Amino acid sequence: MNLNSWFEKGLTPEQYMDKLEYHKDSFLHIFENFQPPVDEEFLNKIKEKNLRVAALAEVWCGHCMLNVPVLLRLAEKTDMDVRLLPRDQHLDLMDKYLTNGKRVIPIFIFIDENGNEVAKWGPITESTKAFVDEYKKELPSKEDDNYDEKFKEMVKIVAKTFKETPDFWNNSYESIRETLNGVK
């Protein structure tokens, strides 16, 4: 599948950030405070591949708030051009990248100059999933009258933790790095 046309439809990082509302402060906090570790050998290796990224994401998504700024900082260091595709406007592409049959984001599709996929990352690291799953255990069933309220409370706590805990940022970076290390 040639992904060039998808890439070209995407928002630039600046356009995406202009649309931020709910998670804007946290997104910008991570973006302003995260820097990839010094690793010139890896960064140069990726830079030489001339990769681009078509990223399925949404501005309201907490996992995107955590992972997109990390991707953008890596992209700066490696000259990767990034385009962000709002998931809900691009379901035909999203449905090619389901996670356990679900439309979970973000999904970062790394493509070469010809538009061929060379790697895919997402939606979250195992440690992030384990952290979120612990909070999900405490939620009532979806049929419960309090579910929506409790879910919103959980989202606030998780988002605050993502914002304030650099270990999550670093884990995301290391996971993306590991994925890219496998690119031939």
Number of helices: 9
Overall morphology? globular
Strand order of the largest sheet: 2-1-3-4
CATH architecture: 3-Layer(aba) Sandwich
Tell me, what is the CATH class?
A: Alpha Beta
Total strand segments:
4
Q: Can you walk me through this structure?
A:
InterPro entries: Thioredoxin-like_sf. This is Thioredoxin. The chain is α+β, with helices and mostly antiparallel strands and 184 residues long. The chain has a single domain, classed as Glutaredoxin. The chain has helices at residues 4-9, 13-18, 24-33, 40-48, 62-78, 91-94, 126-136, 147-164, 166-181, and strands spanning 52-57, 81-86, 107-111, 117-121. The protein has a four-stranded mixed beta sheet. The longest helix has 18 residues, at 147-164. It is globular, with a radius of gyration of 16 Å.
Summarize the structure.
By secondary structure, the chain is of the alpha+beta class. 53% of the residues lie in helices and 12% in strands. The protein has one domain (4-124, 166-181): Glutaredoxin (3-Layer(aba) Sandwich).
Topology diagram in text:
Elements: H1 4-9, H2 13-18, H3 24-33, H4 40-48, E1 52-57, H5 62-78, E2 81-86, H6 91-94, E3 107-111, E4 117-121, H7 126-136, H8 147-164, H9 166-181
Parallel strand pairs: 1-2
Antiparallel strand pairs: 1-3, 3-4
Organism: Siminovitchia fordii
InterPro entries: Thioredoxin-like_sf
Protein name: Thioredoxin
